[in-house]
Amino acid sequence: MPKVVSIHSYRGGTGKSNFTANLATTIALQGHRVGVVDTDVPSPGIHNLFCLEPEQMDKTLNNYLWGETAIADTAYDVSDKIGLTDNGKLYLVPSSVKADDIARILKDGYDVKLMNDGFRSLVKGLELDYLFIDTHPGLSKETFLSIAISHVLILILRPDKQDYQGTAVTVDVARQLKVRKMLLAINKAHSKLNLEALKQKVEETYAETVAGVFPLSEDVVQLASEGVFCVNYPEHPVSQEFRKVAEQIMAG
């Protein structure tokens, strides 16, 4: 049974796309067939992590949403680009980075039901084991859709008052939408913080499981979104934390 996993945050700047790319890759490295859809149409960017250049993206999610192409034609096999050599496969459906395309989709919107149909078609057509949805930050009808259809929702937050308040709202919405499984991930935690105490505090506050705590890492910053961190630094503590989160996704 394929699993749909939405990665979301209430605010931008949490490292959501980086998190999505690393988690999806970690699971693909276990031999699974994984798809990633960049539904952050106003500010797409995850293609950079998979080393897919804009000039290589002749068809995007936008073209599908405008009825110009099948969604399967917008999926790019990026397995080789991230060094997947075994049975695992990773496909990316990017959003357009062209200014005119972004302006058009912001002005006209798109049919949310069509997006849902696209997810189903993608899972079936590519025989995916996992489909990751990289969402747009904040709450909107598009976000509600991806939360509602997800088997797993991962909410990313930083140890920051604005993030705490926004996450509380998002958790309430997710519960109203009866999301099947919700996990929290704390990202960019300062090294001076007691990470175990932080994890405990967040779990008590939201009454939800914290799947992983990721320290603010200079090594991650240094890579500067040019590639997937866990592939470049497989033994790094950050990569090990991604493996812990991946196990919780794959477990059930």
UniProtKB/TrEMBL annotation:
SUPFAM superfamilies assigned: P-loop containing nucleoside triphosphate hydrolases
Q: Which UniProt keywords apply?
A: ATP-binding, Cell cycle, Cell division, Nucleotide-binding
Pfam families per the UniProt record, alphabetical:
ParA
InterPro entries named among the record's database cross-references: DNA_Partitioning_ATPase, P-loop_NTPase, YlxH/NBP35
Kindly list the biological process annotations in GO that this record carries: cell division
The GO terms this record gives for MF are: ATP binding
Name of the protein described by the UniProt record? Cell division inhibitor
Instruction: Name the source organism.
Output: Rippkaea orientalis (strain PCC 8801 / RF-1) (Cyanothece sp. (strain PCC 8801))
